[in-house]
Amino acid sequence: MRYAEVSVNSPIAHRRTFSYTIPNGLDIDVGQAVWVPFGDKLLQGIVLELSHYPAVAETREIAGVIEPHPILSSAHVSLAHWISEHYLSPIFDAVALMLPPGFERKVVTFISSPPTHHEQDISSLIQEQRQVLELVHRQDKVSLKQLEKALGKKKAQTIVSQLVGQGSVVRSYELEPIKVKPKSVPYLSLAVKASEAQKEAARLRAKRATKQAFLLDFLAQQPEPVSLVEARQRAKCDKAIVDTLVSKGLVTVRQIGVKRDPISYQNITISYPLRLTAAQESAFKSIQSSLLQVANGYASPSVFVLHGVTGSGKTEIYLQALAEAVRLGKRGIVLVPEIALTPQTIERFASRFPHKVAVLHSKLSLGEQFDEWQRIRDGEFDVVIGSRSAVFAPQPDLGLIILDEEHEWTYKQHDKSPRYHARNVAIKLAELTGAVIILGSATPDVETFYHAQRGDYRLLQLPERVTPSEGSPLPKVEVVDLRNELKAGNTSLFSRSLSQATAKAVADGEQVILFLNRRGAANFIQCRSCGFVLRCKRCEVALTYHYVEDALVCHQCNYRISVPPICPQCLSRRIKFLGIGTQKVEQEASYAFPQARLLRWDSDVTKQKYSHEKILGKFRAHEADILIGTQMIAKGLDLPLVTLVGVVNADTSLNLPDFRAGERTFQLLNQVAGRAGRGSFGGRVIIQTYSPEHYAIQAAAQQDYALFYDQEMAYRRQLHSPPFTRLVSLTYSHTNDALCQKEAERMKRLLIDERDSKGIADISVIGPAPAFIHRLRGRFRWQIVLRGSKPSAFLSQIPTPQGWAIDVDPVSLT
Ligand code: ADP
Ligand code: ZN
Ligand code: ZN
Q1: Is the pLDDT of residue 411 over 60?
Q2: pLDDT for the residue 520
Q3: CA distance 492 to 479
Q4: In angstroms, what is the C-alpha Rg of the chain?
Q5: pLDDT tens-digit map of 529-547
């Protein structure tokens, strides 16, 4: 094959690849990283295909290879194509997801002798040419930079071009080296013979310097240097003792390089498989048999949906399924939401697969990420665990992919291209590699569950907690109607029920979480008396309040009205109630529960003061009685002293202008409820709301997924929402609002003209409207939504103008 189709790292490449000639003598494979000329630049590219014929008449030559071996497997090449086509993203953006961390670096040009070098008459050369040649011969390889320093930029480039033209030197290209500082730790060893050290120890002991003596004796018994940390632990001495012995010339300290290892195994003890409960056993058997059948080539792998309430033992199934995959010579990838990628989670996997677990984490330094990536590719790990982007880890022999909390929205990358969903990517990757996949959740995404119901995926259920506390397997949930509170003259944020329960829990030395499911700055207005929320007549969604204009706006169709002076439902004047924030709750709680120690946890606090772990650590150590926070606290926490969770106003997420608002609310309430009663005290949940009859709240209160699912699907069908249709959102942003709106209107006309000229009947164009977050980092945003059976196929035919962001299957319209 003489031609290569290359995905080039250039913003103007879009969804295209480019044809290049493969120069004679160069071995090129699919998945290989190469240097290619592009315009007047030399850019990185990845070979995605080889062919006998170029796609265009004139092709340029590949300039060189970046790495001798392919970086992308053929499955990853197919996956990149799929991502680019499905999410309408530039192909290199998709490819870049799979490259080693720090790969997109500057290129360094080197000059060296050609491979078949013969003696050359240098008498005809000018002096500088000779100078360069001699340097190249002497050093084997000289960077162009070095020559530029010696001769001046222009001159060096001219001379090199002349010499390359004569065939007496060749250019080659390398990536600028990654600046990884190797990590090193101090080690102790004796500076004298062991026998001498022991003699000295005896002398010191006589002088009552027992600590110094002890350390000397300890070191005399060690065959090898000991890390300072270990020596201090085992010889029970402090830094001053070490320093004294160093100053006496008896002990030396040396820095020794260590491999970076994001998991510290010092405090991890090995764990063993638990005996499964009947429900776990039956779920596990199905997974096991699918793994076996795939291994034997009898069947293609299944997609499993593992639906189990919090604490039902899903993680134990993941661990045993991974062990089974490993037994069959395979490896696994485990995805967890970023916020759940805590030391506790990692420890559960690391303790079952000691030294066989890699962690991919955005908090690792670039050097650590790079090291981890290399080691994964070399097959050092059975299990790779990480958040969203870990789905692209170069894990060889992939046999099992696990997505925990598969309904989590953070699996969708929504802020930059490609706007992929890790669940869909994982399913595609599983199909390409022949891996089994498990989607686990207590509240599966209704679209996932819909596929399970249709038989596309296989449903496994764990209906009960493994260790139900006495008498109450799940916490009791009470729904409080806030309308009754106001009628009864209670104007506080806390209902009578929640106040009493909180005061009692605190008095009994237990802990309470007060939860606010609120996100974003913009908001809806609600009647404080009856809870009425104004909605768009066309779109059903709650209208968003705009402070500046004092108006209500539909963020889907741009319908606008001014705020009515009285509530249309109950005629109350308290119509402009804008909801509440965590600070307000904290303030009211300090009046209502003066004895309680409060801790607030929201993004304001975590940004400024402490990290999540610190706040959580404080609460776990019982340094506070009440934790007040937003959805961050809903996840993955195991807090045995928490016996009460209060949801201050459940309607906040219910009234987001989004067809997924009900699902979002159900998931959040369910998760929050799962926080209560994890210890032996049992638990109680109080949900405050103005819409106690809403099915999302009813179903969450009864912890009844089926109830929620049926109602939600009926609603989705009626409104033509996914999964009964597909959506693509297009967002345009600009610093000038009027210009932004104008461009959005132009785009809408263009889309409608395209659609009508092609005679496509089933696509509707919704909007344009200001995006829910109308202004972000100084730019205004307007949005158009396409709805239909194949909106992205339609859109792929239309070149995307500059400034538009396309989100296929958006996870939210806000
Ligand atoms: P989930 O992942 O569904 O929330 P976990 O796997 O964390 O549930 O299990 C909840 C608790 O029950 C954990 O403490 C776990 O160690 C324990 N557990 C799970 N399976 C078993 C079992 N078969 N026997 C005993 N304890 C179990
Ligand atoms: Zn009202
Ligand atoms: Zn509308």
Answers
A1: yes
A2: 40
A3: 17
A4: 32
A5: 888 888 888 777 788 887 7
Find the mean pLDDT for residues 561-590.
Answer: 83
- Alpha carbon nearest to ligand 1 atom 25, residue: 274
CB of 316 closer than 6 A to ligand 1?
A: yes
Ligand nearest to the CA of 535: 3
End-to-end alpha-carbon separation of the chain, Å?
49
Alpha helix segments (H runs only) across 676-808: 695-701, 705-718, 737-758, 791-795
Which pLDDT band holds residue 470 (cuts at 50, 70, 90)? Answer: very low
Encoded amino acid at 160, one letter: V
Q: Tell me if 332 CB under 6 Å of ligand 1.
A: no
pLDDT digits (tens, 9 = 90+) for 249-295: 999 988 876 665 667 777 778 899 999 999 999 999 999 999 999 99
For residue 793, give both structure tokens. Answer: 């196929």
Kindly state if the Cβ of 716 falls inside 6 Å of ligand 1.
no
Q: Is 678 in the pocket of ligand 1 (CB under 6 A)?
A: no
User: From atom 19 of ligand 1, which residue's Cα is the shortest distance away?
Assistant: 313
Establish whether residue 280 lines the binding site of ligand 1, counting it when its CB lies within 6 angstroms of any ligand atom: yes
The reply to whether ligand 1 has any atom less than 6 angstroms from the CB of 692 is: no
* Number of the ligand closest to the Cα of 533: 2
- pLDDT computed for residue 118 by the predictor: 65
Q: What is the pLDDT of the chain when averaged over all its residues?
A: 87
Per-residue pLDDT tens digits for 283-315 = 999 999 999 999 988 888 999 999 998 788 999
Counting ligands in written order, the one closest to the CA of 768 is 3
**pLDDT (0 to 100) of residue 178:** 62
Q: Looking at the chain, how many residues does it have?
A: 814
Question: Does the CB atom of residue 276 touch ligand 1 within 6 A?
Answer: yes
Residue written as token pair 């009960």: 464
Mutate to test the pocket of ligand 1, among 285, 316, 408, 675 (most ligand atoms within 8 A of CB): 316
Ligand 1 contacts CB of residue 671 (under 6 A): no
User: Is the Cβ–Cβ distance between 688 and 651 less than 8 Å?
Assistant: no
For ligand 1, what atom is nearest to the CA of residue 277? 23
Three-state DSSP class for 633?
Answer: helix
* Assigned token pair, 610: 């402490």
Q: SS3 string of 391-457?
A: HHCCCCCEEEEEEECCCCHHHECCCCCCCCEHHHHHHHHHHHHCCEEEEEECCCCHHHHHHHHHCCC
Asked if 516 and 652 count as a contact pair (C-beta separation under 8 A), the reply is yes
Nearest listed ligand to the Cα of residue 531: 2
